[in-house]
Predict the structure.
Amino acid sequence: MIDPKTMNVTLLKAELARRGCLSRAVDLPASIADWDEGMLLAALAANLSSPNAAHLREDLTMLGIGGRFKCGGGAWIVTDIGSRSLSAIKIDEKAKSDPTWLEGPPYALEEVVFDTFDIGGIKID
């Protein structure tokens, strides 16, 4: 019979692998085999609290809330990530001269929704 702690570690490793967390740079031992239950819980909690856009397009793994990207000749900041879209505000001249325009939510600038088709135009530096 498997002890509960071993089972928890096994389940946490499987969930982290399912979420794609194991390919990210994290401040934990290089081999997941060396991670204890607390480390695995911390990694899972970090992933749950900071969603990324990998489910929208495979190469957007590092694009999370507050992340920056380019689209349509402008620079944007991600404000929210949904199951099929993301929202962002455009960094315009007002925001460049006064960064308080980028504080939120709520944001002083209009949030724009990028749907499945718009996401194809996103470019990450």
In short: Residues 23-29 have pLDDT under 50 and may be disordered. Strands lie at 68-71, 74-81, 86-90, 111-114. DSSP finds three helices and four strands in the chain.
